[in-house]
Design a protein that fits this description.
Shape: elongated
Strand content: 5-15%
Number of strands: 8
Strand order of the largest sheet: 2-1-8
Order of helices and strands: EEEEEEEE
Number of helices: 0
Length: 235
């Protein structure tokens, strides 16, 4: 982002910014014949940070917009003007053929949800991923939901505006995003991925990927992040 003239207080010499990191991936459901009810947990939203007007100098500012997660991974960080937001944590899933299963949500800007399988497995496996990995104030995002019960329950991904819900046995449960009017109209960014809807995070939102359907393999991609810069360019 190139500032060719720093401006002045009589016109404009400040910018406002919104930074959203890439969302984490949603987990896949088991395809083992003995485990047909397991749902994929929701991916955590990318961290979201907003900044009131601050002064800039005539200079070139490097901007990095975090990619949404693909496969089983966390979203990538976004950075600009010396500020950063943390990529969302991946949602939990069950690693077939292993015990204990790899089901925990991962930490991130918002945490991924945890997932368990059937009553043959320990419910305590479904730990949530924690949000606000950058330890910012105000927080950049919230924790994912846990899976504390049995029978294929999973947690929703954490969002920038709220935690993911625990023990979703059907679908839904992603943490809410944050509405911003920095573009002139209200848009919601960085929502957590739902459980078992298999919906990828939308581009340029930082949304987490939703978990996959029960008995369906495949990770669901998170949405790419975004940096929005608002400034007055003429009187």
């Amino acid at each position: 982002f190139i500032v060719s003239d720093a401006g002045n207080a009589a016109g404009s010499n400040t910018v406002q910014i919104l930074i959203a990191a890439g969302g984490g991936s949603g987990g896949h459901g088991s395809t083992a014949s003995a485990i047909t009810t397991e749902r994929g947990a929701g991916g955590g939203a990318g961290g979201l940070r907003q900044f009131a007007a601050f002064s800039v100098s005539a200079s070139t500012y490097a901007m990095v917009i975090g990619a949404g997660a693909s496969s089983n991974s966390d979203g990538s960080n976004s950075t600009g003007f010396g500020y950063s937001a943390t990529g969302g944590g991946a949602g939990g899933y069950h690693a077939l053929g292993s015990y204990p299963a790899t089901v925990n949500g991962r930490n991130g800007g918002s945490g991924g949800g945890g997932a368990t399988t059937t009553s043959a497995y320990a419910a305590s496996e479904g730990a949530k991923g924690l949000g606000n990995a950058g330890s910012y104030s105000p927080v950049e995002g919230y924790d994912g939901g846990e899976s504390t019960g049995y029978e294929g329950r999973a947690g929703g991904g954490g969002g920038s505006g709220g935690v993911g819900q625990d023990d979703i046995s059907t679908s839904g449960g992603g943490g809410v995003g944050t509405a911003s009017s920095i573009t002139g109209s209200s848009v919601t960014y960085a929502a957590g991925g739902d459980v078992a809807t298999a919906v990828a995070g939308s581009a340029n939102t930082g949304d987490g990927g939703s978990g996959n359907l029960a008995n369906t393999a495949g990770y669901i991609n998170g949405g790419s992040g975004i940096i929005i810069i608002r400034y007055k360019f003429q009187n």
